[in-house]
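User: I'm preparing a small set of examples for a lab meeting where we compare how different chains pack in three dimensions. I only have the primary sequence for this one, and I'd like the structure in token form so I can line it up with the others. Please keep the answer compact; I'll paste it straight into my notes.
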Amino acid sequence: MEPDVCSSKGCRAPATWALSWNNPKLHTSERRKIWLACDDHKDSLSAFLSARGFLQETGPHDGSLQPR
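Assistant: Understood. Below is the structure token output for the 68-residue chain.
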């Protein structure tokens, strides 16, 4: 089985981080989506989501953060 990869466009590096987010204009407050990030793209993906007020939580990609 192939490892999960980073969600950053064009990146194929193994994911080490999970970024939980939701768009309050589209999703209920309980809904969570997950983007995966490698170490190199964690900060840029977090900044992108934070600038829009979407980022909810960041944690290691170990399965503890799940979409809802």
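A couple of notes for your slides: The beta strands are 17-21, 33-37, 55-60. The longest helix spans residues 42-51.

User: Perfect, thanks.
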